[in-house]
Task: structure prediction
Amino acid sequence: MASTITAPGLTTGKAPFVEEARSRGELYITQAYEQYSEANHEAWRKLFARIQPRWERYANDHFLRGVAALDLPHDRVPRLADINARLQPLTGFQAKPVSGYVPGFLFFDCLRRREFPTTITIRPADRMDYLPEPDIFHDIAGHVPMHTEKRFAETLVRFGDCAVTAARITAEVKDPAERVRRLTSIMRAMSRFFWFTVEFGLMRGKQGTVAYGSGLLSSYGELEHAIESDEVQRYPIQLEWVINQVAEIDHYQPILFVVDSFEHLFGLVDEFERWMIEGKLYNVAPGLPDVAESDLKSFLDAAAML
Result:
């Protein structure tokens, strides 16, 4: 009787291929597509099928055009090579598979090089609604369709530029303790700015407010909640408010910010960099997100190289 060979699976938290790569210190990896199990493909099918009607209702037009341009498959986990073949000619961006968390400076430097660090694992079927760490559905279905829009893609590159600026200006501070204090404040401001725009941003649309943030666009529950719920406060974006607003990491966001356009967002990133250079970001409000030691070290290491 012939035996059936079953793929080991690339399930979040249960992926030997990824765990072994991480144990070897390998951050950038291959997708190892043949290792996806049928359960992995079924998870993608279910996630895609249930959220697609909400995209049609609540996503911005650029995102919907991006889904079509990338020809995102609905019935299986996408091959990153196929996604990249369609994405690169549009904006120069590429999805870059990684084994796990990418420290702060390295992440933003990838964006500067038009590379988007992409998790290859997918959430298990019993955790469809919430996963604290990103998975391939969040990264590819939530983030990457926006990377087909030229102005948004340029905004991501500018975020990468800001990381280099942060490392450069803090490298000039002679006192080590003060250098860490200033850099920590800048990093917190930058994380909040990215969080409330690229991850959880709203935009004015022709028919009202729509979503462009990937944290919303990859969440079946929060996407509708962000647009429809009376529990959410939605405000026109103000840079000084965003960089001092505490993020919520384990439940739906109670406060969200609305941009007018991607040109507007691009201009805000320019303004953020000017504030950084002018020393206006050294005393932002404490609170979440925390600045992890690995993130701080990545910026300090980059500063030491300048």
Summary: The chain has one domain: 27-305. The chain has a mean pLDDT of 95. The chain has 13 helices and six strands. The CA atoms of residues 6 and 37 lie 7 Å apart.
